[in-house]
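Example S7 (structure tokens).
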């Protein structure tokens, strides 16, 4: 795996500050570093932005991969606030702008793997979730972090139907949430996070299947028990709580041994799926002693 810090990257690869500051006022207000640092975690080519913003799972807008791009245009992602509650010392409801301003943004180039067998390489822009967690001061008995998506059936048409249990909910064990690869995302490529990809705030956990990356987050809760998660509630025999990318554990209806890159030529062969999506050297220790076939 290739990992670059900003000190390892040629200046020509770093977005110039003047260019970055022209990326709409919202992002400009959040920048606190002279340049945005960049973390590259794969040698695979970036997925074209057009593919990232047109082919995705966002069931609130529909069950087809293109429904979010077709039905998400009217979604209002501003103003936005996030409630932090549960077992923490600093609960409250915070305007997104105020919550993000103190944090320097980073570009994180991550491989992302979907449970259906397709993958992308996405240049997310955001900051580590552990920064927010530390600010909230979770209590010692808080061992999990739960997340909740907005409930807005007037803007998200599929929430009018019981396709899933709404609102969408997800969760991580505390050590997973604190891991430096786990980030809160506010942008990708050269634009604020589009509605289709989870505006204005979503999670990215690159060693897990994509459905763990909950979108349009309005609530973060610290708990002392494993929180319910939407797809595990829907089909527990198919979707476990952990949902780590594992080529050796098949989905009941298809193999997870290979994947296809979205945006590549239709003639390109599938490639082998990597354990932990290629991030095993950084995250495998989180699961020492666990049976990953049982805790899938």
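Recovered sequence:
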């Amino acid at each position: 795996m290739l990992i670059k810090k900003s000190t390892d990257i040629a200046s020509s690869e770093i977005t110039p500050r003047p260019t970055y500051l022209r990326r709409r006022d919202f992002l400009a207000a959040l920048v606190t570093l002279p340049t945005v640092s960049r973390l590259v975690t794969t040698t695979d080519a970036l997925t074209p932005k057009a593919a990232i913003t047109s082919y995705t799972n966002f069931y609130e807008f529909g069950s087809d991969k293109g429904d979010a791009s077709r039905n998400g245009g009217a979604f209002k992602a501003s103003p936005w606030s996030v409630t932090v509650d549960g077992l923490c010392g600093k609960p409250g409801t915070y305007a997104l702008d105020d919550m993000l301003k103190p944090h320097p943004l980073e570009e994180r180039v991550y491989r992302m793997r979907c449970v259906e067998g397709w993958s992308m390489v996405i240049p997310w822009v955001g900051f580590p979730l552990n920064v927010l967690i530390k600010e909230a001061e979770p209590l010692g008995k808080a061992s999990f972090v739960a997340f909740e998506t907005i409930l807005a059936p007037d803007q998200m048409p599929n929430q009018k139907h019981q396709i899933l249990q709404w609102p969408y909910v997800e969760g991580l064990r505390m050590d997973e949430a604190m891991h430096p690869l786990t980030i809160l995302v506010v942008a990708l490529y050269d634009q604020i996070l589009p509605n289709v990809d989870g505006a204005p705030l979503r999670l990215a956990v690159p060693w897990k299947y994509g459905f763990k990356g909950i979108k349009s987050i309005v609530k973060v809760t610290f708990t002392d028990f494993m929180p319910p998660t939407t797809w595990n509630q829907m089909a527990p025999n198919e979707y476990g709580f952990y949902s780590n990318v594992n080529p050796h554990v098949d989905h009941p209806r298809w193999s997870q041994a290979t994947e296809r890159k979205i945006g590549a030529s239709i003639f390109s062969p599938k490639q082998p799926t990597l354990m932990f999506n290629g991030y095993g050297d950084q995250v495998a220790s989180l699961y020492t002693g666990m049976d990953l076939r049982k805790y899938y």
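Notes on this example. Residues 1-24, 29-35 have pLDDT under 50 and may be disordered.
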